[in-house]
Amino acid sequence: MSELFPRSQYIENPQAAALAAAREATFSSALVLDAIDDAHAILDQFVKFEVDVFAILGMRNLSAFIGELFAAAMIKVGAGLFRKNPHQDGYPDLLVMDEHGHELWTALEGHLREKGPFSPFAGGGLEVKATCGSVPTPAVFAKKGLEKPGIGDQRVAFLTGYDWKAHHQDTNNLLGIFWDFIDGVPRIVAVFFCNDLSRDDWGGIIQPREGGGRTTSVSIMTRGGVQKMFVNWVIMLNDPRYIAFFERRNKTMLPR
Asked: Is 47 contained in some domain?
């Protein structure tokens, strides 16, 4: 449990009491909150280090790390409901270990290093993606006499949008995390979930350019996909600044 960031600061969606991960396997918003609390407790430990771990990671790696940390916390608090996909490029991230999932896992125990059986895993599960949203470019900030928020700076006052990125257009059963720095520490602000995303909710595949910044292909979620996720919010920080941002971006009130 995080002593620096108590779970009492969150609100839960009463309509998200039982979320379907696959078949009859469900998880609750309370489980998601447990995972947030566990992830925050680990982040609290990084604050005690003599080096700035967050700055070392950088924003892109830090966002990916937070997604991995939350996924690991879901496995921990899920009491056997999930397993981590054993292949780093596998899909989805969290494999559902209901009766069917267990049977498949047992049959594949001699092939855990192979990508094929785990991309996708026939038993299904949850994908986890994290974002801290987008803010204007440094040039835009400079015109206003300001500096772009850096590592450790809260971004909520400057946010212009948000989305999630995937390597393909078939990503579904998505737990979408939104995070920000609060008092200098990364904190999960909100978690959204949708199990009816389609290929139309993902943009065209952007291939890496020779000498470009991207090392892998990527598909960016469309505004329609983001709105689907928003409607299925699970956990939200009870802070009017973030709630107002999400409502403004999705042009609708927070579904309750």
From this structure: yes
